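Rather than argue in generalities, we reproduce a single protein record, letters for residues, whole numbers for local backbone shapes, just as it appears below:
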Amino acid sequence: MDVKEYKSPVYSVIAVPVEKVCANDYNPNVVAPPEMKLLELSIWEDGFTMPCVCYYDKENDKYIIVDGFHRYRVMLTSKRIYKREKGLLPVVVIDKDLSHRMGSTIRHNRARGTHSVELMTSIVAELTRAGMSDSWIMKNIGMDKDELLRLKQISGLAALFADKDFSIPEPMMPAPKDED
């Protein structure tokens, strides 16, 4: 039996012109301005120590960010870093469909960052519309049943609950009063 050896993406870092990289439209990670300044200083002082994780869109010849949006932003906004790096961003490529890329983004972010509840709600809605089950969502983006339920409730989208059985309880009748 020929077993193909797994090779983690980090062993295949490539230098990509930053102009060929673009953000995804579902990243719920938020970084405050002071932390962005610290990230720029970190990249200036230490260089890029972690590549951006991207999906390669062959049709458009673009690298879509799965993780590393803020490192990408630093490359675009810091003239000194852009110049030193010759406009090249370190990237590793993963080949996953959109739902799995969303899961990857969330896992990367939740391991170290903060999230926008609004964007997380949007992602849950998108994954639900894509046919992903609650158990798939909980497993792949690292949330428990209560958190998933809260995000679905916040969204207010009835479609997110379409596969659930609900019943309306009968109103309780008041206990009869003793009549004298």
